[in-house]
Amino acid sequence: MGEISKHVSQFLKQGGIALGYGWHDLPELKDMDDILQFHIHIWEYQGVTESEYYGVDENEGKTMP
Could you state, in order of their start, the residue ranges of all structural domains in the chain? Predict the structure, then answer.
């Protein structure tokens, strides 16, 4: 396994998965340590609300079209 893959795997195991990240939804390598330190969820990293990220209308509680 390459160094980048090790770093990513470590990030995911140490809390990245709990914050919503996965192999197909990764932050930049330079941001991974700060994300774990400050518990930054994927939607916050993307600059949207949790509802916007997951496609749920906050007023209706239903998936948006």
Answer: 3-59
**pLDDT above 60 for 39:** yes
CA distance 34 to 2: 22
Confidence label for 24 from pLDDT (cuts 50, 70 and 90): very high
pTM: 0.80
Tokens of 43: 């939607």
Nearest Cα residue to 16 out of 49, 59, 24, 56 = 24
What is the full DSSP assignment across 7-40?
A: HHHHHIIIIITTTT-BTTB---GGGHHHHHHHT-
